[in-house]
Design brief:
Elements (H helix, E strand, L loop, with lengths): L2 H12 L4 E2 L10 H16 L10 E2 L22 H5 L67 H13 L3 H11 L5 H9 L2 H27 L3 H10 L1 H17 L1 E2 L10 E2 H4 L4 E3 L47 E5 L6 H13 L9 E4 L2 H4 L5 H6 L3 H8 L16 E5 L26 H10 L6 E6 L2 H4 L9 E7 L2 H10 L4 H11 L3 H6 L3 H14 L13 H18 L11 H20 L6 H6 L4 H7 L3 E3 L11 E3 L2 H19 L22 H14 L6 H10 L2 H7 L15 H14 L2 H15 L4
Parallel strand pairs: 6-9, 6-10, 7-8, 8-9
Antiparallel strand pairs: 1-2, 3-4, 5-10, 11-12
Length: about 775
Amino acid sequence: MDPENNQAAGSDVESDNETYERPPSSYGSMKSECDEMEKRSNEEEDEGAGIAEVVCFAAPNPPAPPVVGSQMGRSRYTETLYTEATELTRPPEGMVIDAGSEELDELEDAELDDDDELLTTCSPEPPEPLEMEGLPQEDENSQPGKLDPELDLPHVFKSIQEVLSRLNKDELFKFKIWFKKWEPLPVLQEVLDGDVLDFVDKIIEQFGQDKALSKTISTLEKLEKTEEINDLKTKCAKAMFRFYLKEYIFRKSQIIHEGVPQPGKQQFLNAVYVEPQISIRGFGGVDPSHEILAQTPKPLQVPSEDSFVALNDLFRLQKEDGSPVKTVVTTGIPGVGMSVSVAKFCLDWCEEKANRDIQYILKLSFQTLRHFLQKEYEEEGISMQDLLEYHHSPIKGLNILEEENAKYVIIMDCYDCYEAPLDFKKAPEITDKNTKTHINNLIVNLIRRNLLPNARLWILGRRAAITEIPAKFVDVIAELQGFSDEMKDEYLTKRFDNPQLAANIVRHYKRVPILQILARQPFFTWMVAKIIKSCFKQANYGSNKPRVTPFLIHFIIIQTNRMLKFYFRKRDNEKWTDVEVNLLRMLGKMSFKMLEKNTNVFTEEDVKDVSLELNEVVVFSGLCTELVPTFITGKRTFCFSHYTIQEFMAALYVFLAFHLDSKNVLESSFLPRVLSYKINGKSAAGLVQCAVTRTLSSKPGHYDMFLRYLCGLFSLHCHDNLLKGFLYSHGVPKVEGLGEVEQLLDQTIEAAPEDRKRNLRECLREMTQEDE
């Protein structure tokens, strides 16, 4: 064997028992490094005489690799992702030695001269920021975007390091003790032994730059270092305000509130979120699909897939002239998930997954802006600066929004909640953010871009409300389309920890085509998950297909409760008044008239015919939406959020007229004379017979779903359980004569044409099935 190899092998064995010094901070602090060089040089010259006193510890076996990421305990090797970004380059007339090299002994004596002592300094300044491999640093048109230099790590690191370097030895010792007093003793000892640069490196690695900056300021406050605090706050004003916004928005966005919020029933947004389809060429957002009809009476347009855009790319769109969009208006049918989309946009920004180039996100919801319509504000007025400080107090005294390169988004959601009309023609022009005026004038001038011209505006609301904004102030309208079939399944799968339960729910709801169609609305998909999960707790549930009628009853009840809460500021589950009952009954009456005319579109005149206000129907109810006006007429037209909801509301109107008023609104000459003795307000069979006659006398699909819902409303579960306490009191008796109705349907199925039997069987099942 080669003697040199033997010697090398022997040195490997002996190295297990060696001790070595802690590597120096890779930010470039050269004090410990130069001590090591001097010691090694003396060892070579004096063969072990006069070794300098150093702190030593046992070497790991094998040596620990460099540590990347956040951790509570630190590796002895201080090279991290952060140190790579601020590593020193070669100083003038000096030499930089790789602190992690194991070949220092091979350096020639000529390379270690006296001039290297000039490198012995305490905490030199970090250099200009370098591009870091592995971290997102995209150009401004790509995701996740590039941070502003004053918000990025090198600036924050340098600012903390410069301030702490001004502390004397005792002050720095106290600072470290206060900063790390809750840490385990070994970690605390390691921190106390390091220099300023190494300390800043460690706290940023452990806490992240935002929390490290915040904790540094709070610790300096305990030491009463006012000058240093003010200096650090001035240097990092942008970073501090961004940190405040991220903390505030994260708390508001990380939890999703679906339906009517209940304590302990919340979900983490990231755990269940599925991004809906968003189109920039929308036509109203209504799905024309139907279980029986090939198309709705009046065909509805749907956007093409090439018009879809990702949620986080809304402010990366460009206008026709190539300039970036500044004002984005987002709309959609009720229940399509606008509020959830806002929360996800904000959450991704907080977690720096997207839009990192956006410096700040400010929320000015119309739900809170309507607070300033109170009399006290009308008399005194309010300025834009007051408005910003009311929502985000740390912005007081900062002028960061007026800077030329400021890039931030103001989110103004719930536009339809604002109770006062905005006059875009006559409102006075305001350009000074400190001018006090009526809140309406502030909103108008913000949308006009007279106030805060650097802001990107994101306005969200139902289409019937946002059409009030003049088109010249809007760069793009994005319309949420809802879930594709794959998205529905993905959402239902993500909602449940039990994969088998999720699979059962997905398989079960698909057994009824109209449920699968309605689940395009994310809100309805949530309702499907909620109801079927509850039903699966029953031992024998799942053998029969689910009934549709209970789902639609739940839908109108939840939407009406949401209307009371968001528009009229009522408490959750507050008892309905005659106003809500009348709204639903008159909506049903209008639906029935539309069904008789075989149309799915209505106008403002149709609304007035049933003594309702347009806003009540197309904004507040949560059941209707506005269609995009045609270029030919320009007339405003509206429809229900799905045609089958119109069919259900028509059936509800007929049922309530029978059950509460003892009226049969279906009486007609179509009724066979042999059954005329049954035609009165107290006969359920007579009412159903009228409905069956209308259905079979009309073309397939005209009244079929109407009949199915009417039969479903006659079931005890629906009319004596679900509707009671809402549309009528608990004292109203149940419907009698249901046996006759069942017998009538059986007879009709036997005599009906073959192509109509399937729907008639579904009608019978809707009324008699009792497994829910």
